């Protein structure tokens, strides 16, 4: 897991994850180097290296010694599974909380979802 | 130790510029005197009166400007001390030679204009064409002023104004002694008024030895002041 | 280059600028040296660069003492906040001597940095503005490529575009030629991302030394209803508390594990990271003028016990 207390970690990870999910980065494609990321974000390369290491541990990237970081063949799968797992806790539950807090009946919410599904 | 080439070159380059300026100014003054009055003396002879202050200034600048630069560039005080010593010992003769060349130029111009190359005061040399003697006398003169400059510069760098006041008598004594070995007429501020000129009736070898020893003493006195001097940085 | 500092003290007359400072820099990183005015940053760097000799204690760089030791001093560079150290001559002259005295000098880098900062080679150093002098210092410090390069507030006089140029150049050259770089600054949030490790000095001693991400992970702002914040922060080190009506925002110091984070979320509390600058302010604050007591769980003078 990324340390969500370090926003710069999250920025780098999120960018790479988004690129993988949208297939801007394809499987087995090389990711920009640590130094390129460091220069772009104006941050210490060690910070980037740690972010990369986390992505390796998560199975999103793999390392080819002396060449660089590459997108794992299963990266997209892994990320979609992870996002699916977290979808209810991260997206649906807060939405329900919000609806209850402002007095929107859950039935209305359900109707809305079903309406979107029918379209 | 490396040869202090760039330190010397930088100072020599500036000295040549000043020498050219001095030639131009002296020529202008001499021409004015010749036109409006009677030019019956060497004009170039007066130049060391100002040039020795430049030698003093060079000594001060060695400590005030170049010492911090050396340390900031990762050199030790000891390395700087070596470079400064070599620079001082080579720069003074360089000034001596430049000055002696000035006499030769003046000699040529005076000959063309039919003017007499008369010296206004006593020197080790009786004629401006005695090149080695001219160089020797003024080398010693410039060297002692330069040494006094490093001494006072170091005192100022380390202890500010109080240090200069405390060291001034020593520096003045060195200058007085060395100047007295090469000529009786000091033309120092206040010195003549208080009859401070030393009339040394010593053998030539003793005079020369005393002069050289005085210069070395001035440079040697500088070392204990700078050997562990802190670099000035404003504290944040 | 490895830097070992052991019980280091520096006195100016009666004033103790450094008072028994002990720490070790493993080298090969960009270090941030932080501290309030008078905490001893400049004094520490002055001793490390052999600008002055310490009053007591020891400094070793690459295993050797520094003062008047040419084997190590020539591999150390300190650029002070006044930028270039000499007043004589032009920018070109300054480079002429730097090139001659610095064993690892890179003239090409110096020229490209001069261009980037818009410094004219013929400009007289004495007539330069504060910003230009700072830029000149940055050029000399970076192009000197000293294995231990220190910048003491050297970018403070620069305007924003110049500072960005400096940060970019520093990072790029550090990545091309890895070396030990120490940067002191008051513009903490601006430079914090550059640091791999942070040292905070306080009253001439080391308050803490920590890798930047780990240090950032130690500060959390807990925001929510006063009673719930109080219940959650009981037993934690609270560095600061601000109240707005029924809502309290407390800055706590120390890592929060996932269980505690879930607990906070369950209690309807909002957790947010604390920027390094705020963390610094809280850690070095001393409202009563008493010595800054390092918070419990935070390192006091001895950083070695800190988890990495």
From TrEMBL, chain A:
Q: What is this protein called?
A: GntR family transcriptional regulator
Q: Which UniProt keywords apply?
A: DNA-binding, Transcription, Transcription regulation
InterPro entries referenced in this protein's UniProt entry, alphabetically: Tscrpt_reg_HTH_GntR, WH-like_DNA-bd_sf, WH_DNA-bd_sf
Q: Carries keyword DNA-binding?
A: yes
Q: Which GO terms describe its molecular function?
A: DNA binding; DNA-binding transcription factor activity
Q: Is this entry keyworded DNA-binding?
A: yes
User: Entry's SUPFAM superfamilies?
Assistant: Winged helix' DNA-binding domain
Q: Which residues form the HTH gntR-type domain?
A: 6-74
- Highest taxon of the source? Bacteria
TrEMBL record, chain B:
Q: Which UniProt keywords apply?
A: Membrane, Transmembrane, Transmembrane helix
Annotated transmembrane regions: 54-72, 84-105, 139-157, 164-182, 202-226
Organism's domain of life? Bacteria
- What is the protein's given name? Uncharacterized protein
TrEMBL record, chain C:
Q: Does the keyword Secreted apply?
A: no
Q: Which InterPro entries match?
A: AAA+_ATPase, ABC_transporter-like_ATP-bd, ABC_Transporter_VariousFunc, P-loop_NTPase
Region Disordered, residue ranges? 289-308
List residues of the ABC transporter domain: 3-228
**Does the record bear Magnesium in its keywords?**
no
Q: Which UniProt keywords apply?
A: ATP-binding, Nucleotide-binding, Transport
Please give one Gene Ontology molecular function term for this protein: ATP binding
Q: Which domain of life is it from?
A: Bacteria
Protein name in the entry? ABC transporter
């Amino acid at each position: 897991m990324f340390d969500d207390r370090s926003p710069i970690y999250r920025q780098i990870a999120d960018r790479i994850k988004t690129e993988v999910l949208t297939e801007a980065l394809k499987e087995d494609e090389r990711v920009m180097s640590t130094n390129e990321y460091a220069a772009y974000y104006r941050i210490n390369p060690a910070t980037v290296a740690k972010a990369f290491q986390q992505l390796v541990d998560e199975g999103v990237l793999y390392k080819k010694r002396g060449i660089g970081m590459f997108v794992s063949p299963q990266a997209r799968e892994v990320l979609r599974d992870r996002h699916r797992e977290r979808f209810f806790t991260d997206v649906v539950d807060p939405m329900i909380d919000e609806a209850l807090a402002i007095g929107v009946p859950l039935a209305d919410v359900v109707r809305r979802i079903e309406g979107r599904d029918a379209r | 130790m490396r040869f202090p080439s760039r330190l010397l070159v930088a100072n020599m380059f500036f000295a040549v510029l000043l020498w050219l300026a001095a030639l131009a100014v002296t020529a202008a003054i001499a021409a004015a005197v010749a036109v409006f009055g009677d030019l019956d003396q060497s004009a170039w002879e007066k130049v060391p009166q100002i040039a020795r202050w430049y030698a003093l200034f060079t000594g001060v600048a060695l400590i005030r400007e170049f010492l911090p630069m050396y340390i900031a560039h990762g050199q030790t005080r000891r390395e700087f001390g070596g470079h400064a010593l070599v620079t001082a010992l080579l720069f003074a003769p360089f000034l001596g030679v430049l000055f002696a060349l000035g006499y030769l130029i003046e000699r040529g111009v005076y000959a063309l204009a039919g003017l007499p190359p008369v010296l206004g005061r006593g020197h080790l040399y009786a004629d401006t064409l005695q090149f080695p003697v001219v160089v020797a006398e003024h080398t010693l003169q410039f060297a002692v002023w330069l040494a006094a400059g490093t001494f006072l510069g170091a005192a100022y760098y380390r202890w500010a104004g109080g240090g200069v006041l405390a060291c001034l008598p020593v520096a003045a004594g060195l200058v007085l002694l060395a100047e007295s070995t090469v000529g009786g007429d000091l033309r120092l501020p206040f010195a003549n008024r208080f009859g401070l000129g030393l009339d040394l009736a010593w053998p030539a070898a003793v005079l020369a030895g005393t002069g050289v020893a005085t210069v070395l003493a001035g440079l040697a006195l500088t070392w204990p002041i700078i050997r562990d001097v802190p670099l000035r940085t404003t504290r944040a | 280059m490895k830097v070992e500092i052991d019980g280091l003290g520096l006195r100016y007359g009666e004033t103790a600028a450094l008072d028994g400072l002990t720490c070790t820099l493993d080298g090969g990183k960009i270090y941030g040296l932080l501290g309030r005015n008078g905490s001893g940053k400049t004094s520490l760097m002055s001793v490390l660069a052999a600008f002055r000799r310490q009053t007591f204690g020891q400094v070793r760089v690459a295993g050797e003492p520094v003062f008047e030791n040419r084997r190590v001093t020539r591999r150390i560079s300190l650029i002070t906040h006044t930028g270039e150290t000499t007043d004589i001559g032009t920018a070109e002259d300054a480079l002429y001597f730097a090139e001659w005295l610095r064993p690892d000098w890179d003239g090409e880098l110096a020229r490209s940095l001069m261009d980037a900062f818009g410094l004219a080679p013929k400009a007289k150093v004495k007539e330069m503005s504060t910003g230009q002098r700072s830029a000149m210092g940055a050029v000399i410090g970076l192009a000197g490529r000293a294995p231990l390069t220190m910048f003491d507030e050297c970018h403070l006089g620069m305007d924003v575009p110049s500072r960005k140029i400096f940060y970019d150049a520093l990072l790029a050259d550090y990545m091309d030629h890895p070396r030990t770089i120490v940067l002191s600054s008051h513009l903490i949030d601006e430079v914090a991302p550059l640091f791999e490790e942070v040292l905070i000095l306080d009253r001439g001693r080391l308050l803490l030394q920590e890798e930047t991400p780990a240090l950032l992970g130690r500060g959390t702002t807990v925001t929510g209803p006063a009673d719930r914040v109080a219940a959650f922060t009981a037993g934690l080190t609270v560095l600061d508390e601000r109240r707005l009506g029924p809502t309290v925002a407390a800055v706590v110091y120390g890592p929060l594990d996932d269980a505690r984070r879930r607990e906070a979320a369950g209690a309807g509390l909002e957790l947010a990271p604390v920027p390094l600058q705020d963390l610094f302010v809280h850690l070095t604050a001393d409202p009563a003028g008493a010595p800054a007591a390092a918070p419990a769980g935070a390192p006091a003078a001895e950083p070695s016990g800190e988890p990495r």
